[in-house]
Amino acid sequence: MLNDNHDFNETLCKSIRSSLNRLSESQMSKIITELCDLFNNYPRASVRSHLIEEICNLIECTQINRHTKIGWLHQELAICIICIQIMLHHLFQSIPLIGYLIESIIFRLFPINNNNNEMQLSSNGICTYSIFLAYLYRFGVISGTLILDILKAYIRDCDIGKVKAAHFITIAVGVNLRKSNLNVCQEIIQQANFELEKHKLQNFEIAFELEGLIQRLSEKRSMEECVTRSLHLQKLIRVWTKGNSHVRLCVCVCVFHVYFYVL
Q1: What is the model's pTM?
Q2: What tens digit of pLDDT does each residue of 39-74 get?
Q3: Signal peptide: which range, if any (predicted)?
Q4: 36: Cβ–Cβ under 8 A, 6 or more apart, which residues?
């Protein structure tokens, strides 16, 4: 019986992994169909759990640096998950896939037990999860409140990995955040300027990231290629969901709401 269960889980994980490893704009429609079909062929809770785990594994092992196209895989992955959620909703399957995924990522970024070494993320892990969340916001799935709360928390901690992640977030969606809540963005800029004054003569790496963040949150428009591509992908959602309307999927939460909900 235990072997049967292990084989079942292994088969399901291999199917999910196979689909995610082929994820691209050209394969998007096929991948969405494959992953949606799993919810019909396997217990839904198991599919959801394994899909979230494989998504997190893929995100965490993706290397982020300024010499690559920032967040292109994250854009495709975010769009794929959104389309799956829309298709499941259309099929009358109320599976809160995105809500559980966001919750899982938040626990990885802000572990309750900070002494648990297994939960400590690398600098790259923090950056790559943060960019993925930023694109979920960019595509209208989560509230800007969550992203702004994350930015505040990162700058408050002023750890190089978190400040770098904050800078990457603003590269991807800084213009959108400014348009949605200028007042909070101004508060974050003030917070970043305060930290910049403390670190500019002591830690040039942190100072560089803070300067970049301040610049991005101050811009009214962006010419970044990742911003242009996100607009392109967003227009294709109706194509990949077979014309279904974009169901309101916004998860209006902030970091601390997630903490209290889980506790």
Answers
A1: 0.88
A2: 989 999 999 999 999 999 999 998 887 655 667 889
A3: none
A4: 84, 87, 88, 91
